[in-house]
Amino acid sequence: MRKLKVTEMNRLTVEEFKKAEKLPLAVVLDEVRSLHNIGAVFRTSDAFLVDRIYLCGITATPPHPEMHKTALGAELTVDWRYYRNTQEAVDELHRMGYIVLAIEQCKGSTLLDELQLESGRKYAIVLGNEVKGVKQEVVDSCDGCIEIPQYGTKHSLNVSVTAGIVLWELAKRLH
Asked: Would the pTM of this model clear 0.90, i.e. be above it?
């Protein structure tokens, strides 16, 4: 086997990406502090044609050189908006008809592999702070919680790893 060259991968240009039909999927970052995590979420969102990202609270916004290190330009392709308060973003998503799901370990959460999506609906996932997770008041206003099954001794995954797993799974189902 031979590794493909970048020129052989037939990726979209920035202009083509902006015009492309996106998945009915949005990402909300609730107080994510690491610029590398934010950049990684942008890059993963670009890979799966996520419609938009909502950056909330202390979550930094582009442009930023540290964010660019992991985003590799995806901060220029994926549409984003900033909100001081995550609840405002969730409220707007609800008004726009999104089903909003917190990615959090909660009593009654749905395991990711058991999640059922409704055809024709738009979805948003809320990812929380690296230490505290999604704020409880935000969890309370979501339509449900998704939990990634885990089998080891640790109780959580890095937020950018979580984003990758959840976005991959939702993208497979929404395509």
From this structure: yes
